[in-house]
Design goal:
about 190 residues, mainly beta, about 60% strand, globular
Length: about 190
């Protein structure tokens, strides 16, 4: 990740242990954060229970992925954008964004990354029981549905829905199982 401090081995962050705060009037569970103070990145779960507005984060990019529920409709600069489950969408976070819930409440994975600090990418993939998926040092893997097993350092541990694995190197932890996984990669920003 873009934080210059050495990253110890992989870490399993249990969803049940995440503190719940209120951001923009809605429950927010911060999974992880890093980078320099005032200009880093955060990965959170947002519970969108009623229509409203996602607050601005000046100088940042936002990647939203619906992980529970069916549809989130955003008003981005007067233009509607529908987000279906497991389809990440990138947008600037400089201005507030309207959020409508035509099919009911949703839970969304939100990645905010300050421009110049990190470039966030989110990919949703299906896990396999036979082919392990590695999680590298610049990645977080959030189990969206199903069940998984984490193998790291010769030990195994069960992973539940919304639990998150922080990657490591040189021996990357691996996930196997059935279900869907959101892999958040935090890359260095592109240089012109």
């Amino acid at each position: 990740m873009t934080d210059p401090t050495p990253v110890p081995g992989p870490v399993l962050l249990r969803a049940g242990g995440l503190p719940v705060t209120r951001g923009g009037g809605r429950p927010v569970r911060r999974i992880a954060a890093g980078g320099p103070p005032g200009g880093g990145w955060t990965v959170s779960l947002l519970d969108l229970e009623r229509p409203g507005t996602l607050p601005a984060a000046a100088g940042a990019e936002r990647v939203l992925t619906v992980v529970e529920g069916e549809l989130l409709v955003l008003d981005v600069d007067g233009r509607e954008q529908g987000l279906e489950r497991h389809r990440p969408f990138r947008l600037p976070a400089d201005a507030p964004v309207g959020a409508a819930l035509p099919t009911g409440p949703v839970r969304a994975l939100e990645v905010l990354a300050a421009r110049g600090t990190a470039r966030a990418h989110v990919v949703v993939l299906e896990l396999s029981r036979k082919r392990p998926h590695p999680v590298f040092a610049d990645q977080l893997a959030v189990l969206l549905s199903g069940r998984a097993v984490l193998t790291a350092g010769g030990t195994t541990e069960d992973v539940g829905v919304h639990d998150t694995v922080r990657g490591a190197e040189p021996e990357s932890p691996e996930l196997t199982g059935r279900g869907f996984l959101a892999v958040v990669s935090l890359d260095p920003p592109a240089r012109d």
